[in-house]
Amino acid sequence: MDAQAWTEVWSPRRPLATDDLARGCWRQSREHALARRYLEHSPKALLSMLVIDVDHDDTVLRALTRPMTHPMPSWIAESPTGRGHVGWVLKTPVVRTDAARMEPMRFAAKVEEGLRRSLDGDVGYAGLLTKNPVHDDWVTTWGTGHAYELGELAKGLGELMPRTLPRRMVDASGFSRNCALFNRLRVWAYRARRRYDDRLEWEEVVAAFATNVNPEFAVPLPAAEVAQTARSVARWVWRRSFDDAGFRAVQAKRGSNGGKKGGRVSSPAQQEARRRTVIKAQDARRKVTAAQMAKDLL
């Protein structure tokens, strides 16, 4: 791997990029983004690279000292303090749009967590922007030019890769937060969809719900990630929606199956209690300052 090879495999068409995280980021042309200190490493529809933030002053040593507990990185972009980002290029990107399957997303989240454990990376890193490895402000150490399949990375990680992802949103980190938010929205949207007839209104409601539950993460996702996930779920459920009669038939079948397994339906009081909990969380953690967003992105 070298600067030219990295630029060729770096695939976003209009990536988010910035020179100062505290001032936010915005979408730019590839040419302009490559001149920025920080840029989006994967297209918004695909996960084409895995990046770990190492918040220690010996990033290169952790990434390259043998014997390694992780596969050889594609690159390491290090700041003058020794802290840096370590990245791996994926041969087969993981789809993360409304057409995405949950299993590949979960598998990618497990691999990412294994890489983080190997490097003792920052659990709060949002994974949206990376230090631009071709920018002069960073000291870049180039690694292998081999593009990895997720299975290759998983095999190299061994026992470091978790067998399951956290069940609670508050315990999720890295890309597993995207999976948790996607699943939370999907389950809620199936029930909520039948109350809306206007597509634009529906997408706004899903976006609002996603924004409200995002603070349940110990380190919330960046606003851009939340909006992207909400848009994917809203469009996916809208296209696969059905009328009230169909909805009642499906719910009746699910209720019957649940009854056989000992399941139970929440009472109106329980539903109201959950609604109030969401409202309280929304009021308590309504806004995130620009500095906090920058910390999440870094």
Task: List the main descriptive attributes of the protein structure presented here.
298 residues; four-stranded antiparallel beta sheet; 13% strand; disordered C terminus
Task: Describe the protein in words.
This protein is an alpha+beta fold and 298 residues long. 45% of the residues lie in helices and 13% in strands. It has 11 helices and 8 strands. It has helices at residues 3-9, 30-33, 59-64, 102-119, 150-157, 176-192, 199-213, 223-239, 244-260, 268-284, 290-297, and strands at 16-18, 26-27, 38-40, 46-54, 75-78, 84-95, 129-131, 139-142. The strands form 2 sheets. A 4-stranded antiparallel beta sheet has the order 2-1-3-7, with no helix packed on it. It has a 4-stranded antiparallel beta sheet with strand order 4-6-5-8. A hairpin with a 5-residue loop joins strand 5 (75-78) and strand 6. The longest helix has 18 residues, at 102-119. The chain is globular. The protein starts with a helix and ends with a helix. The model is unreliable at 259-264 and 288-297 (pLDDT under 50).
Sequence-ordered SSE layout with sheet pairings:
Elements: H1 3-9, E1 16-18, E2 26-27, H2 30-33, E3 38-40, E4 46-54, H3 59-64, E5 75-78, E6 84-95, H4 102-119, E7 129-131, E8 139-142, H5 150-157, H6 176-192, H7 199-213, H8 223-239, H9 244-260, H10 268-284, H11 290-297
Antiparallel strand pairs: 1-2, 1-3, 3-7, 4-6, 5-6, 5-8
Write a short abstract of this structure:
The protein has helices at residues 3-9, 30-33, 59-64, 102-119, 150-157, 176-192, 199-213, 223-239, 244-260, 268-284, 290-297; strands at residues 16-18, 26-27, 38-40, 46-54, 75-78, 84-95, 129-131, 139-142.
